[in-house]
Write a structure and sequence with these properties.
Oligomer: single chain
Distance between the termini: 64 Å
Structural class: mainly alpha
Number of strands: 0
Helix content: 55-70%
CATH superfamily of the largest domain: Tetracycline Repressor, domain 2
Shape: flat
C-alpha cells in the first residue's frame, strides 16, 4: 500500500489530505493555493525542492520517487504530502528552482545583447542539470520561469515588436533554448557511437546525401552551433524591426 501511495497520480480535486469532492485543488501546482505553513513542522517546501534537486543531480530522474525523497529528508510520506500533493508537484517546483539559477542581466541599451546573454546562460544552466531535458514539456508557470520570459519579451518590446510578431519571436527564442537542451541530452553519445552514426549515414549516402556530406551530430562544438543558430534568429528579428 505504501508503494502505491508513493507513485499514485492525483486527479483534479483529489489532493492527498483533502476531503472527497473538494475541488479546490488544481492539477498544476502553480495554479493551486498553497497550504498554510506551520512553524512546528520540521519540513518546508524549499527544503523539499533542494533535496529533490540534489537527488536528481546525483542519480537522475528515474530514481526520484516520493518514498526515496522522504527517506532522504528523514521524514515520512505523510509529512511530505502536507507540502506537495504529487510527484509532479516536486518536478515542477524543482524545475522552476533550477531556472532561478539563470542570471537575469541588468537591462542595457542593446536589446540584442541582453537576449544573447540571457539565452546563453539559460542553455548553460539546463545543461548543468541534464535531467531537466525530460521536464521541458511540463507547464512552466513558476515565478522564476515567468521572470525570465518577462525579461525576454520586454527586450523584444524594446526592439519594436508588438502583437503576433512579438509572440512569434518570444516562443521562437524560448524554443531555441529548450530544443537545444533536449537535443544535447538526446545525443550524449560516446566517441564510438558518434563514429558509428557517421558510418551509417555514409553507408546510406544515396538515401541521405546531405546528411552524409554535411551532417554533424551535437558534440563538443555544439555551444558554438547554438550561438550561431541564436544569431540567425536574432538577425531575422532585427531585420523584421527595420523593414
Amino acid at each position: 500500500m505504501r508503494q502505491a501511495r508513493d507513485e499514485m497520480s492525483v486527479t483534479p480535486g483529489s489532493r492527498p489530505g483533502t476531503e472527497p469532492g473538494d475541488d479546490s485543488g488544481s492539477p498544476c501546482v502553480w495554479l493551486r493555493a498553497d497550504r498554510p505553513q506551520r512553524a512546528d513542522r520540521p519540513l518546508s517546501r524549499s527544503r523539499i525542492v533542494a533535496e529533490a534537486m540534489a537527488l536528481l543531480d546525483e542519480e537522475g530522474i528515474e530514481r526520484l520517487t516520493m518514498r526515496r525523497l522522504a527517506e532522504r529528508l528523514g521524514t515520512g510520506s505523510t509529512t511530505l504530502y502536507w507540502h506537495v500533493a504529487t510527484k509532479d508537484d516536486v518536478l515542477d517546483l524543482t524545475l522552476d528552482a533550477l531556472l532561478g539559477e539563470v542570471p537575469l542581466p541588468a537591462p542595457g541599451g542593446d536589446w540584442r545583447s541582453d537576449l544573447r546573454t540571457l539565452l546563453l546562460a539559460w542553455r548553460a544552466t539546463l545543461l548543468r542539470h541534464p535531467w531537466s531535458a525530460c521536464l521541458l514539456g511540463r507547464p512552466m508557470l513558476g515565478p522564476n520561469t515567468l521572470a525570465r520570459v518577462e525579461f525576454l519579451q520586454a527586450a523584444l518590446v524594446r526592439a519594436g515588436l508588438t502583437g503576433r510578431h512579438l509572440t512569434a519571436a518570444t516562443w521562437a527564442l524560448c524554443g531555441q533554448v529548450t530544443g537545444a537542451a533536449t537535443t544535447h541530452a538526446a545525443f550524449r553519445l560516446t566517441a564510438g557511437e558518434h563514429r558509428a552514426v557517421h558510418t551509417h549515414l555514409w553507408t546510406h549516402r544515396d538515401t541521405y546525401p546531405a546528411l552524409a556530406a554535411h551532417g554533424r551530430l551535437p558534440d563538443e562544438h555544439d555551444e558554438d552551433d547554438f550561438a550561431a543558430g541564436l544569431d540567425y534568429l536574432l538577425d531575422g528579428i532585427e531585420a523584421a524591426t527595420t523593414r
